[in-house]
């Protein structure tokens, strides 16, 4: 109700920007309608054609904006991140040897920045350690390479550091967040996650990045809105100003993680293949182990997500071959090492009974897994196909399974 909806000079933006400065320490703040708006501004104004931007595993929209700007992605995440059975706690860590090989091959004039995400989404919500981040920063400082963060789930990563990394038990979540950000040159955020808001995002920089900040701010007016609202309503900027502080509550984060552990534990005890250990924002099913008889080019994670929806009405998300897209050189599916289905847990929404119902439905799908076949893609857009692509059962689907699916299918307008 206190949102200032003024087109120019919104007081709500001032409060939002002050919260970013207070919680994260970034002095220069640009509001955007959501995280991908911030990614667009950053990559269009930073990346030069031919640049190599290493990341601790890709994220879909981040990679798309990088490639649209003429850059190339390289994965420098640690090898443990690709092993769903490994209990290594810091699967979001960067492998500095991989980064060093890229710098030796292309030179720091082409590897001008590293992009790092806390609580890595495509790896199953896995965190990096503060020790690894500090090692990365020291290496980059020595090679004139900048470090930029996707801070969408930074509080969840901070919780892991506080509770699992030596030396941080006495730190507050807010102080850990500030220390993470202090080891970077700037960041972008999709605020719908650890900002605890319905919509919004921002791009933020340290004071020494004022030139890049100015270029991005000049374009926010073209693509998002005036630099004091950037496509966000005053109401959402006010909410974000509050949410950035509320997400630093260790009790809130611990309660949230206990829900994830509950769902992860119920599925694990039933033998359902999962990403281990339990991540920070969701429980991830290992679709390749769940449906080992379905070839990756028949999209096992996409089919598993569909089967869960048909079984119990729970909407999940494919994070595998469909999300990875096609190799622009060959036109073939990229076939990533991880073929996952994400059960991202909404914040402050579900009760334990919701999670128990979800587990029961997934276990029922697992019990009939041998009768599940793959999909074929009937249409896909040129970019970010997982948002809009269409599928149908693959022709090798038996009539019995096909009949079962059609009995349960929602009305056509849902597809």
Report the C-alpha radius of gyration, rounded. Answer: 21 Å
Number of strands: 12
Give the spatial strand order of the biggest sheet: 1-7-6-5-4
- The H-and-E topology, N to C, reads as HEHEHEHEHEHHEEHHHEHHEHEHEEH
* CATH architecture classification of the largest domain: 3-Layer(aba) Sandwich
Low-confidence stretches: 398-415
**Number of domain modules:** 2
* Rounded average pLDDT: 94
Helicity range = 40-55%
Taking the sheet with the most strands, its summary is:
5 strands, mixed
Proportion in β-strands: 5-15%
Which fold name fills CATH's third level, the topology of the largest domain?
Aspartate Aminotransferase, domain 2
What is the level 1 CATH name of the largest domain? Alpha Beta
Total count of helical runs of at least 4 residues: 15
Overall morphology:
globular
Amino-to-carboxy terminus distance: 37 Å
Helix and strand composition category:
alpha/beta
- How would you name the CATH homologous superfamily of the largest domain? Type I PLP-dependent aspartate aminotransferase-like (Major domain)
What does this protein look like?
The protein is of the alpha/beta class and 415 residues long. The chain folds into two domains: 11-246, Type I PLP-dependent aspartate aminotransferase-like (Major domain) (Aspartate Aminotransferase, domain 2, 3-Layer(aba) Sandwich), CATH 3.40.640; 250-414, Aspartate Aminotransferase, domain 1, CATH 3.90.1150.10. 42% of the residues lie in helices and 13% in strands. The protein has helices at residues 11-24, 35-46, 60-68, 96-106, 130-142, 154-164, 173-182, 210-223, 234-246, 250-269, 287-290, 300-312, 321-324, 352-367, 399-408, and strands at 28-32, 52-55, 72-75, 113-116, 146-150, 186-190, 201-205, 282-286, 317-319, 340-344, 375-379, 390-393. Strands 1-7-6-5-4 form a five-stranded mixed β-sheet, with helices on both faces. It has a three-stranded antiparallel β-sheet with strand order 8-10-9. Helix 1 (11-24) runs parallel beside helix 9 (234-246), helix 2 (35-46) packs parallel to helix 3 and helix 10 (250-269) runs parallel beside helix 14 (352-367). The longest helix has 20 residues, at 250-269. The radius of gyration is 21 Å and the shape is globular. The chain starts with 10 loop residues before the first helix and ends in a 7-residue tail after the last helix. Residues 398-415 have low confidence and may be disordered.
